[in-house]
């Protein structure tokens, strides 16, 4: 972390990092090699060129970045859930969304390493050695990139065409910790990057950067920590889209009604409002996927006649009154029609069942300082993730 040794005003430049000091696929000593092979190094993550650069620079004794790497004696201090035993991940994080995200990460890491990294290393035996540049080291470097890299934001006109910029390592900037209510952020200029204060900082206070608007489950998954309750104002809870489908089917009394729900769900899938993998995202003050949830509740609560008429219009009404009510602030949720409220209520209850413990037990644990401090670090981080999500879900239950 970084502390202020004197009072700081808003807009003060804390430090400047010249672009030559950034470690990326474009500044590594094997940049030409990576550039020539860029077609064969494409992957879903887009991280392979940087990871190859890191594999090389981390193990090359003459690397320009050795002083930087010397800050990490090894990367085993990173405690991302992907390094936790599977049973521990399942028992502590069930219901949070993290186990599924980790499973996808691990599958991608293994696939990238075997299908892209190994063939590349084998074709450059003077630079790479699979005995040294192992899958285990590769996995640790993936966690290192997750926790410490930065992505330069694209200009707005480039966003649609290019996809995100590849990640890069930014020495010094990566020392700062993150909180939702941060007091500094990183600015990108043509020649350098600058860390600038966004709030006044008093002497002795910690200087916090922002890693973006991150929910606690994302922070734990990507960075290996969660922000203690109630600090994370960006926290969210998910209701899986398939859970709402399940709740609607459970409410259908007859076979004909179940058939109607299935048709309504297929229609929502065609409109791309829902999907088997998707989730409705709830923040502290509003639904962040308001259009999708609003439409899903409305369609799944239609009678057969209403649905038939709605389908004939292609799912879009020309109704200005509807438009005004489409924003699902929590205040608007309380005005939903009773069938929509019931469906949402049932969906939240089903979501809460997916956790292994209830809100009351976790509240007692958080309120008991002595008991909380006896927990392992992993248990504490997982508790913060679960508790924040459940608080948001219980808040929604009370509203509807």
What about the largest sheet? 3 strands, antiparallel
Give the domain tally.
2
> Given the helix and strand composition, which structural class is it?
mainly alpha
Q: Gyration radius, to the nearest Å? A: 24 Å
Provide the β-strand percentage band: 5-15%
Question: The CATH topology of the largest domain is what?
Answer: set domain protein methyltransferase, domain 1
N-to-C series of helices and strands: EHHHHHHEHEEEEEHEHHEHHHHHHHH
Low-confidence stretches: 319-325
Overall mean pLDDT score? 94
Helical content stands at 40-55%
Question: Tell me, what's the shape?
Answer: globular
Assign the CATH architecture of the largest domain: Alpha-Beta Complex
* CATH homolog superfamily of the largest domain: set domain protein methyltransferase, domain 1
Pfam family, one: Rubis-subs-bind
Keywords: Methyltransferase, Nucleus, S-adenosyl-L-methionine, Transferase
Protein name: N-lysine methyltransferase SETD6
InterPro entries: N-lys_methylase_SETD6, Rubisco_LSMT_subst-bd, Rubisco_LSMT_subst-bd_sf, SET_dom, SET_dom_sf, SETD3_SETD6_MTase, SETD6_SET
């Amino acid at each position: 972390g970084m502390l202020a040794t004197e009072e700081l005003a808003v807009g003060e430049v804390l430090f400047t990092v010249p672009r030559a000091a950034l470690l990326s696929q474009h500044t590594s000593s094997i940049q030409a090699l990576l550039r020539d092979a860029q077609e064969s190094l494409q992957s879903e993550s887009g991280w392979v060129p940087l990871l190859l650069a890191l594999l090389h620079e981390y193990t090359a004794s003459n690397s320009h970045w050795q002083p930087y790497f010397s800050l990490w004696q090894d990367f085993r201090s990173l405690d991302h859930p992907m390094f936790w035993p599977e049973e521990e991940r399942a028992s502590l994080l069930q219901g949070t969304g993290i186990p599924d995200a980790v499973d996808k990460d691990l599958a991608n890491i293994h696939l990238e390493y075997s299908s892209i990294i190994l063939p590349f290393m084998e074709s450059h035996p003077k630079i790479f050695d699979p005995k040294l540049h192992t899958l285990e080291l590769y996995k640790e470097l993936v966690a290192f990139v997750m926790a410490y890299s930065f992505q330069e934001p694209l200009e707005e006109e480039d966003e649609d065409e290019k996809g995100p910029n590849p990640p890069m390592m930014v020495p010094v900037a990566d020392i700062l910790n993150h909180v939702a209510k941060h007091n500094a952020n990183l600015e990108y200029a043509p020649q350098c990057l600058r860390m600038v204060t966004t709030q006044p900082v008093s002497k002795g206070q910690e200087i916090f950067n922002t890693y973006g608007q991150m929910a606690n489950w994302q922070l734990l998954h990507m960075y290996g920590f969660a922000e203690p309750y109630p600090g994370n104002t960006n926290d969210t809870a998910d209701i899986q889209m398939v859970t709402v489908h399940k709740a609607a089917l459970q409410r259908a009394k007859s076979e004909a009604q179940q058939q109607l729900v299935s048709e309504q769900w297929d229609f929502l899938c065609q409109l791309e409002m829902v999907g088997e993998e998707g989730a409705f995202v709830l923040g502290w003050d509003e639904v962040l996927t308001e259009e999708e949830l609003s439409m899903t509740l409305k369609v799944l609560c239609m009678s057969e006649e209403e649905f038939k008429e709605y389908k004939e219009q292609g799912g879009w009404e020309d109704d200005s009154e509807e438009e005004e009510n489409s924003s699902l602030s929590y205040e608007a949720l309380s005005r939903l029609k009773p069938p929509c409220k019931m469906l949402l209520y049932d969906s939240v209850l089903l979501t809460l069942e997916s956790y292994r413990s209830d809100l009351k037990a976790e509240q007692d644990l958080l309120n008991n300082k002595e008991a909380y401090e006896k927990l392992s670090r992993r248990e504490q981080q997982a508790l913060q993730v679960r508790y924040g999500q459940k608080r948001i879900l219980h808040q929604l239950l009370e509203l509807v």
